[in-house]
Specification:
Blueprint lengths: L1 H6 L5 H25 L5 H20 L8 H23 L1 H6 L5 E6 L2 E6 L9 H11 L1 H17 L6 H25 L4 H50 L1
Antiparallel strand pairs: 1-2
Helix pairs in contact: 2-3, 2-7, 3-4, 3-6, 3-9, 6-8, 6-9, 7-8, 7-9, 8-9
C-alpha cells in the first residue's frame, strides 16, 4: 500500500483514506492469526471475508484515474492476492487446519462450587459455517460505508458545502447499519427464519443507500472503487444465507 501511494500520480485525500483503511487490515490478519492459533471456529468465515475485501480494498488503490498502474503497485498487488488466496485455501482445504478449528471461546464457568476459566460450548444449536460467513460478511457493511463517507469529506474541504447534509446522513447510515446487523445476526445464529429475511432487507437497504451516494459524491470512479467491495460483501452474505 505504501509503495502504491508513493508511486501514485496524486497523493490526494481520498487515496490517503483508502490507503489507511487498507493498511488497517494488517490488524485484521493479526486477529485472524490469533483465532487460528486458538482453534476458533470463526476463523474460517473471518479469514474468507477479510481476504476477499482486502483484495478489493488494495485493488482499487492500484488502478489510477487515468493511465496504466505503476509496476511496483502491480507487483505488490499480485503478491498480496496470492497470499490472500493461500489463506483461503488453507482455511477451507487443509484437513489439518480444519481439524484444529473446532474450539469455542473461553469464559468463566461455575461448576460444583468451583469457578474456572475454560472453553464455553454455546447453548444454542450448532451453527453452520455459512451462517457464520453471512454474519461476518454483514459486519463489514458499516466500515465499507464509513470509508467512502470519510473520503467524501474531502469534497467538503474543497468547498462543496452543499454535500454536508449528504455526508452526515452517510455517516449516520453507516453507524445505524452496524447496530442493525448486530441485532439481526444475534438471532440469525439462533436460526430464526425472520432474522434471515431481515438481514436480506438490511443488505438491500445498505446497497440502496450507499451506491447512489458513492455515485453522487465520488463519481463513477468512487462508485467502482468504494461500491464494488460493498457489493461483493452483500453478494457473499446473500449467497451464504441461501446455502
Amino acid at each position: 500500500e505504501l509503495l502504491n501511494y508513493w508511486y501514485a500520480p496524486e497523493q490526494e485525500f481520498g487515496l490517503a483514506v483508502r490507503t489507511g483503511w487498507a493498511m488497517l487490515r494488517s490488524l485484521g490478519f493479526l486477529l485472524l492469526i490469533g483465532h487460528v492459533k486458538r482453534g476458533r471456529v470463526v476463523a474460517k468465515p473471518f479469514g474468507l471475508i477479510l481476504s476477499v475485501t482486502t483484495v478489493f480494498a488494495v485493488g482499487r488503490l492500484v488502478v489510477p484515474r487515468a493511465g496504466v498502474p505503476p509496476l511496483p503497485g502491480l507487483l505488490g498487488f499480485a503478491v498480496l492476492t496470492a497470499l490472500c488466496v493461500a489463506v483461503v485455501v488453507l482455511l477451507y482445504r487443509s484437513e489439518a487446519v480444519g481439524a484444529h478449528l473446532v474450539r469455542h471461546r473461553k469464559g468463566l464457568v461455575v461448576e460444583g462450587g468451583v469457578i474456572s476459566w475454560r472453553e464455553v460450548v454455546p447453548k444454542r444449536p450448532p451453527v453452520t459455517g455459512w451462517l457464520l460467513t453471512a454474519r461476518v460478511a454483514a459486519f463489514t457493511y458499516s466500515p465499507l460505508m464509513l470509508v467512502p463517507a470519510l473520503v467524501a469529506t474531502g469534497s467538503i474541504l474543497d468547498g462543496r458545502i452543499s454535500a454536508v447534509p449528504a455526508v452526515l446522513f452517510w455517516f449516520a447510515a453507516g453507524i445505524a447499519v452496524s447496530y442493525a446487523v448486530l441485532f439481526c445476526t444475534a438471532f440469525l445464529l439462533r436460526d430464526r427464519r425472520w432474522a434471515r429475511k431481515l438481514l436480506v432487507v438490511i443488505t438491500l437497504t445498505t446497497l440502496a443507500v450507499d451506491l447512489p451516494l458513492c455515485w453522487w459524491l465520488l463519481g463513477a470512479d468512487g462508485l467502482i472503487r468504494d461500491g464494488a467491495p460493498l457489493v461483493t460483501a452483500a453478494l457473499l452474505t446473500l449467497y451464504s444465507l441461501h446455502r
